[in-house]
């Protein structure tokens, strides 16, 4: 018996059934989404905390791969799982990079996003699923967000561009990028290529951005089904008079300080201006 209404949006996407599910898991979170593709399942939750009142966004994003996702249980003396692996840390960062600029400027409430791999298909990458799930979870939550966004892996195998290639195919690819983007623009690119020309790289990026639109449309549909009303937020504005006074008092001094060639002396000069 499901405790809550199950909302599902699914679509065939390059050989796999991609789906977003919400409404019946992690209901105490501000937003929660199960992302499925093949046999891979990622649960992404986001929680909105209290207003911190600082001058930055206290955003924490964690990507976690549990051993039970591969059907294993830690053995030996230590039964618990340890700290995040290098892959988990790097994946957490590449989810953070495209998402962080999408939050409203001046928003300083604490936000936590956790992507937990519940099931891992050996042939389906879970990193791009976690990125798409993070955007979907935030989009349906009350958090002000200029999304949605989505990400795909684009690779070239035997001269053909492939979206989200199987893991076993990736070793044979001479171009492999993870691309994240919104409706209007690409916001992050990560990957590499073996002596690919500029035209070939651009072709891959434009193709990835084109395919991203389908995933964004799925998130839009999910928001229509179960999205929550966004919290009211008015950014704090600094009076123009104060900005003008600060510019007059520090502009010339700061310009002189940053032109100091010696690194240590430049650091001291900038600190003196502050």
Descriptive keywords:
274 residues; alpha+beta; Ribosomal Protein S5, domain 2; 2 domains; six-stranded mixed sheet; four-stranded antiparallel sheet; 32% helix; 28% strand
- In whole angstroms, the N-to-C terminal distance is 61 Å
How many helices? The count is 5
Number of β-strand runs? 10
Topology-level CATH name of the largest domain: Ribosomal Protein S5, domain 2
Tell me the CATH superfamily of the largest domain. GHMP Kinase, N-terminal domain
Class per helix and strand makeup: alpha+beta
Order of helices and strands: EEEEEHEHEEEEHHH
Gyration radius, rounded: 22 Å
Residue runs with pLDDT of under 50 for 5 or more positions: none
Q: Can you give the mean pLDDT?
A: 90
Strand fraction equals: 25-35%
Instruction: Please indicate the count of domains.
Output: 2
Largest sheet: 6 strands, mixed
Tell me what the CATH architecture of the largest domain is: 2-Layer Sandwich
Written overview of the protein:
This protein has two domains: 7-150 and 161-172 and 212-226, 2-Layer Sandwich (Ribosomal Protein S5, domain 2), CATH 3.30.230.70; 240-273, no CATH class. It is an alpha+beta fold. The protein has a six-stranded mixed beta sheet with strand order 1-2-3-4-6-5. A four-stranded antiparallel beta sheet has the order 8-7-9-10, sandwiched between helices. It has helices spanning 86-99, 127-140, 198-226, 240-258, 263-273; strands at 7-13, 16-22, 31-37, 40-51, 59-65, 109-119, 150-157, 160-163, 175-181, 186-193.
